UniProtKB/TrEMBL annotation, chain A:
Membrane topology note: Peripheral membrane protein
Residue span(s) of domain ABC transporter: 6-243, 260-505
Keywords for the protein's UniProt record, in alphabetical order: ATP-binding, Cell inner membrane, Cell membrane, Membrane, Nucleotide-binding, Repeat, Sugar transport, Translocase, Transport
Main location, first listed in the record: membrane
Name recorded for this polypeptide: Xylose ABC transporter ATP-binding protein
InterPro entries recorded: AAA+_ATPase, ABC_carbohydrate_import_ATPase, ABC_transporter-like_ATP-bd, ABC_transporter-like_CS, ABC_transptr_XylG, P-loop_NTPase
UniProtKB/TrEMBL annotation, chain B:
Name of one Pfam family that matches: BPD_transp_2
Protein name as annotated: Xylose transport system permease protein XylH
Keywords: Cell inner membrane, Cell membrane, Membrane, Sugar transport, Transmembrane, Transmembrane helix, Transport
Role noted for this protein: Part of the binding-protein-dependent transport system for D-xylose. Probably responsible for the translocation of the substrate across the membrane.
Record's GO cellular component terms: plasma membrane
Chain segments annotated as transmembrane: 12-35, 47-66, 86-109, 121-139, 159-181, 201-218, 224-242, 309-340, 352-370
GO molecular function, one term: transmembrane transporter activity
Topological relation to the membrane, as annotated: Multi-pass membrane protein
Highest classification ranks of the organism: Bacteria, Pseudomonadati, Pseudomonadota, Gammaproteobacteria, Oceanospirillales
Compartment annotation: Cell inner membrane
Amino acid sequence: MKQPLLDMRGIIKSFSGVRALNGVSIQLDPGEALSICGENGSGKSTLMKVLSGVWPFGSYEGEIYFEGNLVKASSIRDTEALGIVIIHQELALVKELTVLENIFLGNELGSFARLNDEEMHRRTSELLARVKLDVLPDTPIRDLGVGQQQLVEIAKALNKNVKLLILDEPTSSLTTTEIEILLNIVSELKQQGIACIYISHKLEEVLALSNWVTVIRDGDHIDTRSAENLTQNDIISMMVGRELDELFPREEHDIGDVILKVNHATAKQAGASRAQVEDVSFELRQGEILGIAGLIGSGRTELMQCLYGSYDGNYEAEVELHGESLAIRSQRTALEAGIAMVPEDRKRHGIVPIMSVGRNITLSVLSQYSSWFGAINEDQESQDIDNYIAQLKVKTASSELSIKNLSGGNQQKAIIAKCLLTHPKILILDEPTRGIDVGAKYEIYKLMFALVKQGMSIIMVSSELSEVIGISDRVLVMHEGRLKGQFDHQGLTQEMIMNCAIKEDTANV
Amino acid sequence: MFKTIKTSQLQLFAMLAAMLLIVVFFSFATDGAFVSPRNISNLIRQTAIVGVLAIGMVFVIISAEIDLSVGSMMGLLGGIAAILDVWFHFPILLTVLITVVSGLVLGLFNGWWVAYQKVPSFIVTLAGMLAFRGILVGLTDGATVAPTSSSLAIVGQSYIPSGWGISVVALLCLGLVARVYTRRQARQKHGVENQSAKFEYAKATIAVSVLMGLLFILESYRGIPTPILIMGGLILIATYVAKRTSFGRRVYAIGGNIEATRMSGVNVERTKMLVFGFNGMMVAVAALILTSRLGAGSPAAGNMAELDAIAACVIGGTSLAGGVGAVFGAIMGALIMASLDNGMSMLDVPTFWQLIVKGMILLLAVWLDVKTKKAQ
């Protein structure tokens, strides 16, 4: 039998004891395309990092053969030299440089002192023609749209004599026409004998483009099937296929009247062509846990940022809290109104790493302990810190330990404590259990139910579908900035959410 | 003043060791003249100006910003004080008040540009460095404003009567011990592990004996210099503000992670502006001491003083990345710098060598800091 271009055998990759990949094998011939599908966090990116050399040879188990030779890459440069090029979701072009300069960045032709501009110009024009991009080589990247930039990335890859092109969610920020152009280019590259690995949530594209579809779930290689005769539903059921286990300690609680109404929430970055949140309206009841699902980039987080006043672009929303309209312009107004948020990015937005656990907990409510000139009543402060550390079971040697020394789960609990100290009526949890061990997860779920029983309302954004279903009373699904579906938790399955979150057509609403 | 965090203690000991080394070295090199009461009195008087500047600067750096305008601002404020005193014969209290308020306004001006207009502090204060100096030269026509009145001389040149000095220091020592005791009690109550009593009280005893020794030496010369008393008072206030007020807490938080602090509902813009305002007031105090000591307002006064203040903070363990630092450390840094200046001058080391040595010490201090942090 002929040797495949790429042969990854039984790849296993662990992070501090947790297996992110558990024996994944894929094979690919020249001119073929293989798509990798899986939920957020299923291990797709880790697999690509292993393949592209971000995780060097020796840091994983299993073997990678490329053109029949064992790959022992120690960095991305090594795999690029072999002809494996990865194009990331976030483009890696230098915005201030021209198309030509970007394509030849780090591989400039000519000597150190004198660049061979003529030759580079000629080659760039050739490459641009190959990817059917009709711009001059001297155009600065910032003047190009995202789709065009994507094509420049491909041209850059072609310049490196690419044999295997990896596209990581290339179309997540493209318009329909741009997607079509991109798909055409990839098909042509296939005909020229270039293999392609395609990572996308957009199953239509996956089916249109690929010869093979590999599904990964929780690091396990579920199956690799020929794309012929495969349907979107087949892929979805392979992606989610897990039973809802007893991880979710659902407790009965009463749900009261509507306390929060959000109408026509819209959020857009300055200068962006597409709004990140577009005309979203929803209601929240007292004592309710409202789940918000959707793919990354669907606008979930941005919607929450609008509610908490932390969105960094232009946003508008008619917010009514307890029947009174409320203009949320900053985090301060949100907190004063009784809305607290545990942010998605714990390191960036959650903790002040070098400060102690205790001081992180009281950061939002310092004025509660302060005299008229700001002196902190340390006795009162320590009392609250002690109480909340005990109540939320934050495991720390001392409240004076730097919070950076705590595990993710305990950091998260400390951040929740910080929010609870403000005595919120509405608590927003954005990915509350991301990167947290099972035990801490369980405790956080328990806490959520305890809080709603006391009459608090919770909005939970989560990528983990089982969590969304297992915890929420009601689930909203977002898709490309819009609210696409609304479900009661009873009878809700992961397939229903996935269908709603992925497919273009509006079903199940 | 210091919590149980290991690094900060290591830093404290390193600084004390460096200080001790410098004292021992210069004492031998100068046949004991370095530790004569007269010289020690001079030395710590020299420390006063950079020390007061460092008190303000340390807050700026903890909040992860920088202020390069401090030297020019000190010149300008000193010039204003001299003009009010020499040209208009304002009473001393009014002169002090107007100077301090001017400092506050200039600082808030810097802070407003940094916090609300989001112009990097490096640029804002670089602009201030140029502009403030320009205003000073314009106001004074480039000439020295002199001589200042005898009442203004009190600020920078006088000494505290010995009875007063002794009681102030005694009170300070009592306060120090009381603070150690109450903090231990509070920590015990909340079940936080205390350091061993022996260790903490030994520390307090050392601090008390250093204060007492210093008092003894100063009294055997002319008494406690007024600028040192002013600096001492400001150290206490600033330490209190940094460690025990919500404002200080927020400054550390902003330097540690500004995004998380904003997400916690802290008004980071206002806090930052106030930091610069506070710094401006400290600059005003330093300016008053400077003008009083020189007996004149000079258009070149305070040139490059910002670099001394920044160096003092950095040598004292303040991280330019923000979030880490202490007033006491910055003062120690200022003292180390002043000792080097003073000692080398006594040894008749040429000025160019003094600059080279100071530069090397700064580099060394930060290098050691980086190394120890990495080792952890």
